[in-house]
Amino acid sequence: MPNTTLTLKSAASEKRNRQDYFNIAVSVDCVILGYENKELKVLLIESDLEEFNGLNSLLGDLVGPDEDLDTASYRVLKDRTGLDDVYLEQVQSFGNINRHPSGRVVTTAYYSLLDIRNHRLQLSHNEVSWHTVNDIKKLAFDHKEILDTCLKRLREQVMERPIIFNLLPSKFSLRELQEVYEAILGVGLDRRNFRKKIMLKDWMTDLKEMETDVPHRPGKLYKVNAL
Amino acid sequence: MPNTTLTLKSAASEKRNRQDYFNIAVSVDCVILGYENKELKVLLIESDLEEFNGLNSLLGDLVGPDEDLDTASYRVLKDRTGLDDVYLEQVQSFGNINRHPSGRVVTTAYYSLLDIRNHRLQLSHNEVSWHTVNDIKKLAFDHKEILDTCLKRLREQVMERPIIFNLLPSKFSLRELQEVYEAILGVGLDRRNFRKKIMLKDWMTDLKEMETDVPHRPGKLYKVNAL
DNA sequence: TCAAAAGTGTTTTGTGTACACCCATGC
DNA sequence: GCATGGGTGTACACAAAACACTTTTGA
Known about the structure:
Two copies of one chain form a homodimer. By secondary structure, chain A is an alpha+beta fold. Chain A has helices spanning 11-15, 18-21, 69-81, 143-157, 174-185, 191-200; strands at residues 25-36, 39-46, 56-57, 59-62, 87-94, 105-114, 128-132, 204-210, 220-224. In chain A, the strands form two sheets. In chain A, strands 1, 2, 3, 4, 5, 6 and 7 form a seven-stranded mixed beta sheet that branches. In chain A, strands 8-9 form a two-stranded antiparallel sheet. The radius of gyration of chain A is 21 Å and the shape is elongated. Chain A starts with 10 loop residues before the first helix and ends with a strand. Chain A binds a DNA duplex (27 and 27 nucleotides) through helix 6.
């Protein structure tokens, strides 16, 4: 397959030779988000490129010749966190010519949501660690832009579809749920209005259980409905 | 630059050799949409691949080594339509292994909106022509899926941002505008409610002119506000 | 005078938002 | 008994939807 001739038609393409087209590498970058201590966090790795001395970057990798984009993202996630049952969604591709200092790489960004506490990660490298999203000022490559784009998409979707539950343990209280929303949206929410609104969505089921080990009146526990 | 070593870290990547990564080609595909006769249309070309005998496909091309993704899309648009002042937006990337029969191609889809009547296109190939979106059952490659994805995105955005005006001439009536919305959304809209809603958005200015050459009472003409 | 579309308002219904009090529990 | 958060309802503002008649023009 690699040596088959590509026959996409265009005046421009005919002028160039085939070799040019295979000088673009394809990668995926994963914005792996977790929630802990009322903060949204993202998994980053210390960049090993000199140009980015000291800067962190997203987790990503080149896409292999035998991989779909989604498959490659799952592989990155699995390799770096040990998890394979994780929510993953494609957001956008970034292909500026000079975005990678070592060569031409077009990357497709995904975001991923997981519960930091429940999944004790098997982090494959020591340099991989969680960082509070709000504290991140600068990342290697164009990864700050990628992060911001993914966060924007997440904020747009979080009230539309039941994705937020990926950040929570399987049993959670309404307070916990509201705190995750507040962390993502960056605003405080009225408790009564929040409860009304979220209950209308039919995303959760009352487990008829109560919180334990809380230093105050325990709240009801819920689970997310099957999707 | 093409011969610089890529140093993305991962156990998986270290196992493969560099050549593998440059066996993926990168393309863009443009869903070029226009509006005419109360119908939404898309610009298609007859596929020249044997495998897709007779099927149409979207307009696309490989991305050159010196082009951003956006630049490549603008080039495709310019080459195929002669237009360069056209709305263009990235939607999503498609990278399934077998999506292109001649080799591995990862493509990024864009949609584009233009006014068929005002821009008399200089179509570069005779095989390029407009097709009513609703009549399209099948396209070459995964282009039907790409088309559907772009249409879905368009429907989500059309009430959020003033993009629809790209489909209309610079002067238009509220009836024309409503008809475009109806064509895109595939539903009928109440005229009074539509007018109220659209006027609240502050997207248009009353030109203090009237339609001419209509076989009925002429309506007011509007123009889109500067963005 | 007829056909075709322009233009216009009111009522109802639902949703978003602001806001305050009593209750259950652990310490 | 005190601190902490759980749980609840009402009033107002605004947006969405349903709905019909008169007016203007060209043919």
